[in-house]
Every structure is written in C-alpha cells, then in structure tokens.
C-alpha cells in the first residue's frame, strides 16, 4: 500500500491518499448497502449513461487504463491501480469528481474533452447522494466475453410481461369516465392538478378525423353532413364510415411502408427497379383495409410462404425481405450478403419488437442487454434465405389464385417437358441418321454429336481460390454458347475469371453414363440437379476425374461451373454411355485465345442446316426443321404469368450460422443456433425438421410465431404505440422503434399496457384500436394552448390538449388534388410517374433514366401510388420530408424551410394545380368572383370563410388586376395559389 | 448553443426523433436575424441551423470540395513513380482490384506525362497541371489514401458519406449539422454539377440520409435559375408576388393569433419572407458582373475550355464570401469519358479533364489567397478512388479503378502547405506508409472546422452515429498546422 507513495507519482498518490484515508479513518463501509429507488434511478438515468458515453472507451471492456473499469457498479467500487475513486457522500474527496472537474492539472479526465458543467454537476450530485448503485453487480472480468444478463436488465419495463392494469375509477364531475383511455389520462392530469382542454369544435373534429384516417380533407358536404347529424352516435358513425373507406388503407398503409423501408429500386449506381415491388404496396393497403389481424399481418410478411394453404397475399407479403437496398456490384460480396441479412435483422427487430438488435452485429450492444449472440441467433432464422438477385427464380414467383390453378400449371409444365423429350427423341434419331449417312458418304471425321442443347453461359471476372457461390456474383456477360459446348474461349482474359454453363443434356436412353472432367483450376459438374463431379481448388490439369451415374432418357438439366485463377488454364469434359464410347462435351485441346468466333465446321447445327437437305432429302429435312422449331418454342420459361417479388430459401437444411468477430465474415467464430432475445426469457425455439425436399427450413415461421405469441412482451406494445403515435403525433413511448433501455420511457405506462392487452384481446384488430382511441375524450381535446398548462407541461406529456400537426408530404399533395377536384381515386397496380422538373432530373448521371411519364389522369392519383425510386423523389414529396427509404423510418420529420415556400409559390406543380383549382371555381361558382373566392376558401379550410376573408381575397384579385395588369384568369389563379399556401391547410388542429 | 446530453442528443433532436409536436424547427439556416420574423412571432423560435459553437476554434470556416468524379490516376498527376516509366508494357505480378475484379498480374502502363519539381517544397507535378504546379507551396498532398471499394457506386457514397452502404448523411450535411449556417439567404450546403450531368447514384451523393432534409445539399446552377423554383412564374411580377405574400401573411397571421404557442406556424410564415428574399440574394450570389476582367481571366473564364469550371470556382469563392459552409464542385459527370474514369484512352481522358480544371483551380487558390480567405477556406481535391498502374485491357492505356492507394490534396483552412504525406509502393498501386482511409480525411475536415470527429454524433437507429463510424478515426496530424 505504500508503494504508490514511493513511486513519486504525485497526483495519483495524493488522490489515492485521500481515498484511502477516508476509508480507513471512518472504518465505515464505503457504499450504502441499500440505495434508495430515487438514487438508483439517478444512477441509471444520469450517471451510467454518462460513464458509458465518456469513460468506457478507456475504462471499459476494451481498455482498462490505470486498471480502472467504470462499466459496472462492482468495478466502480473496486477502483483502479490508484485505489478507490469514490468517497460516497463526499465529492471533494472523490477522485472521480476531482478528475472530471479539471482542478488538478495532472488529473484531468476525460483527457481530451472536458465534460460540460451539467455532466460534472450530475456526477457531483450523485456522489453527494452517496453514490447509489445497484448491489450485487460484480466487477466484470476483462473482455466481457461472457455477457451476463442481470436481474436489473430483466427488470426494464419493456421486458416485463404485459399486465393488464386496473382502470382508474375516474369521474368527470358528472358521471364516471367510460373510455378507459380517458381514465388513465385524467388520472395523471388530476395528479398534476392540470385541467385538460375542452372538446374541439365539430369542424375541427371532422377535419382531424378525415386527415387521421384517410389523409384527405373532408369536402364541404362531408362537414355539413356531420354538423347536421344530431344523433348521439354521429361521431362514432363517421369514424366507422372513414374506417370502411378504401382511403383508410392508403393512409395507414403508408405508415407501414415507411417502417418496412418500402421502395421500388435498389439504390446505388444503377438504382435499378425491383421487379413487381408495387404488389407489396397493394398488399399492405389491402391488409389495412380488410383489417387483417396484426399477428397474421406480421406472420405473412415474415413467413407467408410457409403458411399452409395460404392465399396469394401471404406470398406477396414476403416481398418484405426484398425491399432493402442492394448493391449489384459490391466490393466485398460476402460482406454484402451479411449487410443484406443485417437489413432484415434491423428491420425485423426495430419494427416488430422495438429493439435495436442490429447494434449487436459487431459487439455486444453497448447499452441494452443484447449480447452479440442474440444478433446471430436472430440472424440464423434468416440465414437460409437466398441472397437477393433482383429477380429470377429465387426472388420471383408466379401467382396462382388457387391450388387448382397451380396444379393445372404444373400439369401443363409436365406436358411441356414430356413433349420436349419426345421431340428430342425424334430429333436425335434424324441426327443419328444424318451422321451415319454423312460418315458413310464423306470422310470419317464428321463433326460431332449433339449432346448439349440450349447451352447458356455466364462469364465472371474475379479472383477465387475455390469455386464461389456464383449466384452471389454479378456476371460480366451472359448468353448462348455459339459452339454448344463447355467452351471457355468466350473469356476476355486468361486469368481470374469464371464460367457457369447451363443447358440440357440429351440422354438417348435410360442407363449408366460416365462423365470425365479435367480442369485447371476448379470445376463442378451437375446433372439433373445432382452434383456428379466436384474438382475444386487450384490445381493443374492432367488428373482427370470420372464418375458414373444412372440417368433417365430425355432432356436433363446440366450445369458446369468453372474458375481459373492464374497460370495454366483449361477445361475438358466428356461422357460415355450405353452404345457410345467417349464423346467430348468441350472443344478439344487448348482453347483459342481471346476469340469469340467459332469455326462453323465445329458447329453441328450449322452443318445440318447447310448439308441437311442434301444428306437427308428435302422432306425429311423439312420435318426435322419443324420438329426443331416446335422444340424451340416449347420453352417452359415462356409460360409466363403474374409474378410477385418474394422470399425463397436454399432448401430445407440451413448451413450453420457463425458468430462473426467484429461482424467480419472472415472472423467466423462459434456456431450459433437459432434463439430468441435472451433478456426476454422465452423458452428456446423448437425447430421443425422439414422433409429433405422441402423448399424452406421452416425457421422463419418459428420466429414469426414467437413474435406474435401473446406472451411476447414487445409486439403488442410496440404496435399500439405506433397506432397512438399516428393519432397523437407521438407515441406513448416517443422512441417508437426503440423500447430498449436507452429509448424513452412511456409517459403513460399503464395506459400502454392496457392498450396492448386490449389489442390482443380484440384479436389484434387495428380498426378496433382506432375506434377505441378516437372515441376517447383525450383524442377529441381542442389543440389550443393555455398559459397555465403550457407552463406546467409545455411538451404536452400529459395530453392536456391535442397537438396540432403539419400534414405529411403525401397529405399535402393529395389535398391539393382533392381540393381542385382532379384527384383520381384509382387504386392499385404498377406505380405511376409524375412530372419531375428537368433541373432535378439533371442530377442523375443519365437524366430521366428509370423515370417514366404517366398520362395526366394517372398523375392525379394519390401519392402512395407514385414510383418510389430511391435516388429520385418528386420535389414536392422530398421537400416535405417524405421518408428516407434506405432504412426503416419510424417517424417523419416535419421541417419548415424556405425552399418549401419557393416550391409552393414558384414551382410548376403548384402553379399547374392552381390553374386547375381556378378552373373548378369558375365552373362551380360561375362568373361571380365573390362566389369563386368563397367556394375556394371553403374547399381549402373546410369552413365557410368570414366576410373579411372574402373581402381580403377580392382585394388581392382587384389589386392584381388593376395594378399588375393581371387578366381575370391570372388573378383568380393567384388567389387559388394563395389559398393553397395557407397555414390553415397545411396544419391540422 | 445546445447542450448535449447522453448520446449527444439535444432536446430538439430528441423531439425530432420522437416525432413530438415540436417539429417545425428546421429552417435551413435562414431565420435567425430576421426582423420580420421576430416581430410577428409570439413565441421565441430557436433556429437549429443558427450558427453553433464549434467544439473548439477551428481554422476553417468553409469547405470547397473539388470532386474529380471517376477517379484520377495518381501516377499521372502527383505521385511520381520513376520506376514505372521504365516498366511500360511489361507484364508483372501486382495485386489489383478494380471493376474487372481481382488480379495478380498485369501489363504496366507507364505514366503518360513527365513532370518536374515546383516551388520551395520541390513537389513533383506532372505536365497535366502547369498552373496548379505554381501553387504547390500552399498544398498538402496525401499519396496514401485508401477506400473500401473500387466500384463507383459504393466508393462515391463512401467519399461523400463515409459509408459504402446507401442512406447516410453527407460530409456537407455533417458540417452544417455541427456548425449551422452563418448566411441567411443562401443554403448552407451547395453542390454544383458538371454540365455533362450528375454523378452516378444522383441525389444519394448530396443526401442528408437519416438526418432531416434541412441538411441536404441544394443544387446550384451557374447559369439560368440558380436554385430550383427560384424564378417567379412569367405572369407573376415582383410586385404581384409582394401583394400575394402580403395577403397570405394576413391570412396566416390571423390564423396564428389564437395559436400563439405554436412556433411552427410562425416559422412557416417567416419561411415565405425568406423565400422572397432568396429570390434576389441567390441570383446576386451567382451574378459575376461585378467581378473584374482580371479576376475572370485568373479563373480561365476567357477560355472556352476552362470557362465552365472557372465560373463554378469563382461562384464557389463568392459563396464562401457569403458564408456558405460547404460547397462541392463536380469535375466530370454522367458516364465513361465524361468524367475521369479513364478505362480506354488515358491520355485523351485526363488531358481533357485536367485541361478543363487546372487553371480554374489554380485561380481559385490564388484568388482566395490574395483576398486573405485561403486560411479560413479548406480546399479538398480528389476522386472517389485512384487508378491502377497496370492496364485494364489487352491493348491501350486505360487504367481500371484502384482503392488500394490514391492521391488527394488539401489546401488552406489550416492545412500545412508544401507538404507531402504517405507513399505508395514503387508502382504507385498500393499505399504503404502513413496509410489514410477516407475516414481520416473526413476526420481531418471536421477537425479543421473545429469539430471533434468523435464527438459529432447524431442519434439514429439506437446508435450515436458518427461520420467516421463507431470506431472513430484519427485526424491526419501531419498535414495540420
């Protein structure tokens, strides 16, 4: 103990002396045994995050400068090489406080950047309180490899089961409160001695309800109908009408599309279109309109393809997996695959569970009790998903209305296959005859058999040491192989390239066939979906491999994969079978360097074309040609139909999932089995054992079932909170996608739990929740402020009023179209393209690329049907804060910027719409300007204008006419433009 | 001044993120000193893009990023490799990674330009840049830059946002987020594109990603309507518009009266007045009629070849004078040889692009210096990556992309002039000493602006996001004075 004094390190020694002195002199335990809940709360809210933020980097799991760790109460108590750092109750003597207050020039922490006064004050206050910390959290060993989830972690409110709370018995002074929402809210208000606002006016309410449920303004007639309805159920009935309107799905579906990062293009250099992505948008709209139970809705998106006897929507729903960004040309393909899986883990965990599990990809979650294992356990549910390829058999599926239709299609396909085999048999016979005659009549070196047909190639340029998964690699070139053989002369260079050949092998009769394969470097031959020979790795040629397999007669799929690294190269393939000795399936010898043209003599199809009539005779040759033509037209892939963008898996048995050190695919660690978030204490998943030929592993269903199980602590809470959020402008939990320990606590925890339990009890019906919320008094409060309430609760934590809100980008655009009477309510189908100014298109590398032009009536459709191209958004949507689509967007910004104003007064869209608005007014209000103005203002504000407003508008028109020489039409147009710019339109009370 | 709490979330960011009622607070740096506004607003309005205190006093107040889109070749410009000339045409073992994948050998293309030493520092510059060569004593060359991707799409994103994945805010967004904007009538982050078109991925290169759109760049044009929708419709004169706005204001003012606590309404009212002013101030900023002939000549505006880039460089200086924080100029646009992406004929490509930019850039440096602005203006030059020392195809001089090692340079804004840091190997293909990642460049830019790259965070997706990533990045101390 004396050593530090001898060491001559003055500051440390002094500090140590202080620390020890107190401890020794008082003889008291240094830390209170039972800290108060208030003190603990102070520690968790103020101190622990501060330490994590400012100190852990040097005094935490990675580094322990001065042997000091500050990342657990135990460690903090233990102190460092200089001894204890805290003297509870005495900040002046606590080294921790000393260091952060920068009083001693040799003991300044953090060394680079001084804490601000608030932070220092918090630490000082905490020490004064006696440095309260949870008991029992021991110092953690270095590295924190064995991530311990503590009782404290489990105690976090959101990890507790939803318990249906007792509804407070409240009375509004006249009668008991009927709607439990009001009871919960009023209980808090009463406790804070705050009176809520009165009910909003009926006009305010009708506008509020229309925008909240449909995203569109009420027409003047809608308003008057409601006002005239004296029934006590008028409000409830209006809500029911709006919930029944198809406009509801277009409004609420949009919220969901924000969450699941919906877009119809891939971002990056080409920002190419995702095939059929619009079907997912329509699916979401249908789901909301049909009030699909939320548990079913989630199950369909996560694993709709695994639901037995599911309808088409369940299949389309799995497009969920395919909506993310995708780089078709990533620098690191393996990493890109994990980036793609990360997108799925992040979206799934944030959207469905309100957890940022994706923060644990590279290390344990910094704040939440989510170990890195949790991340990979969740990832392993998705690991078998085929990597996205932007279309093709792994991303697209044909849609069948029912199983009969599907069976019919399958029968048809089988018939096509049968006929193709039959045709091939006949063709083979003729070709055999041709060869024989040719051999008899001419020289013996007749060119070639015809064993391979419809051979296609894909050519790749990259360096490998083993055969890659070519499905993850972008092909440089692809097409038909002219020579009809496994021909690597199609390459553009002699090193670092690869080929995949796919086509049909023509098998004359059923029997055993032997394949021969030699390659430099690696190769793999597969026939009829089975691997026949694998000759992988880097090696020279000369050691031919062979294997014998039994094959049925007909046209069997054949596939050859090959790569070349450097130095010598070559590929030799042959086969033999009943009735024939070895025949080559690749060109002989060392292929010609860098040439794409084959000598025609080698090409059998060329030969039979030129010599066929002579050798076979005109009639037989014509017959041959006809058979060949029929075969060519009978391609199964030509049998197209409606398709959707969907998920698919690599078969029934997933490869193992490894924990990746620092998220790096090259640092694969232990194998991780599928499992649920540990802190939630769920029973371990029971994984299905699918049949070997099953198309999927069934794992996604297991995950989906867990997420929607009634016992899941988060799912219902997270979703009712989102519903609340989009009615009130903020969730009961403000951080709607983060219910973790660094998220916001609910302002009304009991109300949240009551709603969550009600949501499940009502069969996960979202419309039931809208009804419940909107029939509350809380929803119907006026939005005006009052001095006392603003003083006591400026951010309206208690819901003493209804917060007014700005319309969203889509609502602004759709309202303008509705107001001028041109809104086209056509639903569903491929997305539309609205005009984008040339100046904006100029920002593209190829202006206008990927952006079409829809006819005017299509352009007047609701904004949800506008194409979502990631790198090009229409300015009116972009400037009013449409969601960023590259990741899940739980909240829309509502910025106010002068560039919005510029677009609203000078932009071409607004000016065109103002013209249309003026035309409507002329049409409906005839030639009376006062009537035109009156109608215009009423359409915009959903209320009759005052005389003063009419006079003001008329004055504008008159002045534009008299002083600026505007024509009648122009003056009215600018009145219309003015009306469309009113704050009263853009904000809802 | 905002007080960061845990996660450096200010109350405002917190509210944004949480989608609370207080949402109309993002005015693009344009509202603070507006008298109209303060007279009409009933509640105090805090502009989040008002100038903010830096973390410490930085040298630079503005940044001009001269983006050589497509990727200039380092060995043909500033990274002198005498041995490489001798190897011209020889096939040698060398590890490369470009558009054409990974290779272990290739045919050397000897540098196509000779050069010589310039200035007191004696820095070698190739004959491509005769004018810029005169400025080397003000420049710091970094020969050891590295990036994660040799593919345009992801490399562009990384140079602009720090990430190869799409969806994050740009360097210019971060600077405006950290410092706010000192000008009132112009955007704080301006991008000027090449006349041939935008770069690939278009708007993703000036997006504010997960930050509010207030932080995204505004595209400014050097001819015609400088900003989208700045021009009034033909039938609306200035006086008509004034009348129009006055009437609008009367309506909005009346609407606001019973809602005095709602600062969003006041903000939106003010935004129309700001827009009105921008219509005169933005054209003023791009009006070069007050510039002398000598100045225009300095920027090469009298020569057809250099006229466009010279005009944009001169505009950049004017924007710096107006207090715009971050200006990005693209040299090259669209595809293929419209930018520095010299896959085919290197000589033709680089002669074209260097020829269009050499004099304007030298003019910009000299002009800033003579006006005393260079010390407070950080200039960055470079592409999303460099090029390989070897040929891409069997014949020709074209070079493929190279992110293993490339050259960028910086000048002004507290950067030590006349210095060179880092080296590539003798072929000029891979950085070997003092290797710097794009993140180090970004860290240095923030540092010069008075921002601590490890402290400048934005809470999003459960994480304190940083431009330099969670691991952080060191400032390139050797080039900082």
Characterize the structure shown.
The complex is a heterodimer of chains A (989) and B (481). With 989 residues, chain A is an alpha+beta fold. Among the domains of chain A are: 3-143; 293-398 and 649-707, no CATH class; 404-442 and 603-638; 448-601, Sandwich (Jelly Rolls); 908-988. Helices cover 41% and strands 10% of the residues of chain A. Mean pLDDT of chain A is 88; it is low at 1-30, 139-145, 442-448 and 589-601. Chain B is of the alpha/beta class. Chain B has one domain (62-227, 293-479): Alkaline Phosphatase, subunit A (3-Layer(aba) Sandwich), CATH 3.40.720. Chain B has eleven helices and 19 strands. Chain B has helices at 11-18, 35-40, 82-86, 152-161, 171-179, 238-256, 263-286, 293-298, 304-321, 346-370, 438-448; strands at 62-68, 91-98, 101-107, 115-118, 123-126, 139-146, 189-192, 218-219, 326-331, 377-382, 386-391, 399-402, 406-411, 419-421, 423-424, 431-433, 436-437, 457-460, 463-466. In chain B, the strands form six sheets. In chain B, strands 1, 6, 7, 8, 9, 10, 13, 14 and 17 form a nine-stranded mixed β-sheet that branches. In chain B, strands 2-3 form a two-stranded antiparallel sheet. In chain B, strands 4-5 form a two-stranded antiparallel ribbon. Chain B is globular and about 80 Å long. The interface between A and B is large, with 122 and 115 residues.
Give the SSE layout.
The complex is a heterodimer of chains A (989) and B (481).
Chain A: H1 3-7, H2 10-26, H3 37-54, H4 73-78, H5 95-100, H6 117-128, H7 151-154, H8 180-191, H9 202-214, H10 220-228, H11 234-244, H12 246-259, H13 278-289, H14 294-303, H15 312-317, H16 333-353, H17 372-382, E1 396-398, H18 403-441, E2 452-461, E3 477-480, E4 497-507, E5 511-520, E6 523-527, E7 530-535, E8 545-551, E9 554-564, E10 570-577, E11 580-584, H19 604-616, H20 618-633, E12 643-645, E13 657-660, E14 668-672, H21 699-707, H22 715-728, H23 749-761, H24 766-774, H25 787-792, E15 805-806, H26 809-819, H27 838-841, H28 856-859, H29 875-879, H30 898-906, H31 908-925, H32 929-941, H33 947-964, H34 968-980, H35 983-986, E16 987-988
Antiparallel strand pairs in A: 1-12, 2-3, 2-4, 4-9, 5-8, 5-10, 6-7, 6-9, 10-11, 13-14, 15-16
Helix pairs in contact in A: 3-6, 9-10, 9-11, 11-24, 12-13, 14-21, 16-17, 17-21, 18-19, 18-20, 19-20, 22-23, 22-24, 30-31, 31-32, 31-34, 32-33, 32-34, 33-34
Chain B: H1 11-18, H2 35-40, E1 62-68, H3 82-86, E2 91-98, E3 101-107, E4 115-118, E5 123-126, E6 139-146, H4 152-161, H5 171-179, E7 189-192, E8 218-219, H6 238-256, H7 263-286, H8 293-298, H9 304-321, E9 326-331, H10 346-370, E10 377-382, E11 386-391, E12 399-402, E13 406-411, E14 419-421, E15 423-424, E16 431-433, E17 436-437, H11 438-448, E18 457-460, E19 463-466
Parallel strand pairs in B: 1-9, 1-10, 6-14, 6-17, 7-8, 7-9
Antiparallel strand pairs in B: 2-3, 4-5, 6-13, 10-13, 11-12, 15-16, 18-19
Helix pairs in contact in B: 6-7, 9-10
